[in-house]
Amino acid sequence: MSRKSHFELDRELKQDIVSGHIDYCVSSNHTNFIAQYPIFRDMKSLFPVNYLAVFSPALIKQSTLKGQLLVIPREALYYNKTVYADPAN
Would you kindly state where each structural domain of the chain is located, as residue ranges? Predict the structure, then answer.
């Protein structure tokens, strides 16, 4: 869990890719950065079509690269605030 800005997360992700040390399965990123990375998988099959239809077509298009949905809009992310607020985590 991290409270870093997207610029800090982007720098950390680049370092992890170069070092070959990616030990997490979820990452937050911005659509401006995502095209740089060959590590993300298409998430279209993970979400029902009717769920994705809630988002504007422009937002889904911006989150899609070469036909692959690589970013889910952050409004779709949920987390346990008590876990996130605990500095030990």
Answer: 6-85
